[in-house]
Amino acid sequence: MTPTSATAETVQALLRSAPQSEAQLEQLAREAQTLPIVELVYLVETRPDTEAAILFRVLDKDTALAVFESLPAPHQAELISALRTQQVADIITDLDPDDRASLFDELPASVAERLLHGLDADQRAMTTAVLGYPREAIGRYMSPEVLTLAPGMTAGDALAHVRLHAEEPETIYLLPVVDRSRVLLGVVGLRRLLVTDPDVLVGDLAHEAVHATATDDREQVARRFFAAKLLAMPIVDGEGRLVGVLTVDDAVDIIEQENHEDSARTGGAEPLPRSYLSTPVLQVVRSRIVWLLVLAISAILTVQVLEVFEDRLDEVVVLALFIPLLTGTGGNTGNQAATTVTRALAVGEVRVRDLPRVVWQELRVGMMLGAVLGTLGFVVSGLVYGTAIGTVMGLTLLSICTMAAIVGGLMPLVAKKVGADPAVFSNPFISTFCDATGLIIYFTIATAVLGL
């Protein structure tokens, strides 16, 4: 969101003037405190580091924490280096353990260790537990602060327990029920406790929990979380013992990160670690240059194909006119199939074992698309350039659409099978592959039909 209010513009002007005096800083603080959190986050993300630090320092503690928690972890790490030691300590202490772990990932090891040792024993233990899981594991995003109930409690006792400890956990709307070894037995919703007779045992109220293991992949768990329409999900270890809970805000963050990553790679780039306007130019270049080089090298295949069929082009020059149309159609058809299958993989609608069904589906879709476009191509090009050229165009469009649809649907599944990110097989890569292959199909059909 871009700040548009007069107050936001005033704050930006004050920051640009590099306020130093106490009066200037007080004016900045007054103006900044009237802005909503979303505009303050935008300003901190998009202003230079020194200006962002000045703005952050004049905010009150609660507002500063709300802004800090809304920033991506890489941006948090950069802001930390520009803040006063005491302010850093206050922020780190108030963060949830999972948010703290994400921040520590971005900090130099020495800084992270110093901040970790500055925490009290309980907070340090919870943060260390979260840091012990791999970055892609859901355990890295759970909150270890969980309010649990025992099966032998009555509903009345359970409500009293919730009231006494309501400020400690991240959520109280879903309450795990565990035995003495913390093995998960089930869950109880807060609403059910409120409407149940106080003498009913919690064990009788508990129902089976939709849960995940701490080492499970974060994206798969987050997708399951939303598919089940949950507010919170218990996370257990390999022996079924409760170790934390995944809340809806953390699940949203995971999906947003995955979608951002997939979107960037589909476009042939790496995701930026922070907001676009605050990312240094060289970092933006690095995020794009690798894929551009890969695609440029792979595009040489297209040039080689044209060189092989150069004599056919010399004989029938009109064939060159249709090359952009055919390569564009093949690339677009492949991109559509790849995007559809990649999304289906992400939401669990398709699995690797469904590969034959996906190929069969895309074969039929490609042939139908090719039949429609081929018929149109035959009619239009036939009227202008003759029946022979129309036949070449019709057969080529039919063949290219069928091939591109199959390739586009197949590549994400192959990527998943070999453990790669399906989004890496991005649309530009598929376009380049379909360009070269489509030209081979085109000139092969032209050679046969026109007798070249």
UniProtKB/TrEMBL annotation:
Keyword NADP: no
Record-annotated CBS domain positions: 142-203, 205-263
Superkingdom of origin organism: Bacteria
Main location class: membrane
Coiled-coil segments: none
InterPro entries: CBS_dom, CBS_dom_sf, Mg_transptr_MgtE_intracell_dom, MgtE_N_sf, MgtE_transporter, SLC41_membr_dom, SLC41_membr_dom_sf
GO CC, any one term: plasma membrane
Keywords: CBS domain, Cell membrane, Magnesium, Membrane, Metal-binding, Transmembrane, Transmembrane helix, Transport
Transmembrane segments: 289-309, 316-334, 365-385, 392-414, 429-450
GO molecular function, one term: metal ion binding
Localization: Cell membrane; Membrane
UniProt topology in membrane: Multi-pass membrane protein
Matching Pfam families: CBS, MgtE, MgtE_N
Assembly with partners or alone: Homodimer.
Similarity-based family: Belongs to the SLC41A transporter family.
Function: Acts as a magnesium transporter.
Protein's UniProt name: Magnesium transporter MgtE
Species of provenance: Brachybacterium faecium (strain ATCC 43885 / DSM 4810 / JCM 11609 / LMG 19847 / NBRC 14762 / NCIMB 9860 / 6-10)
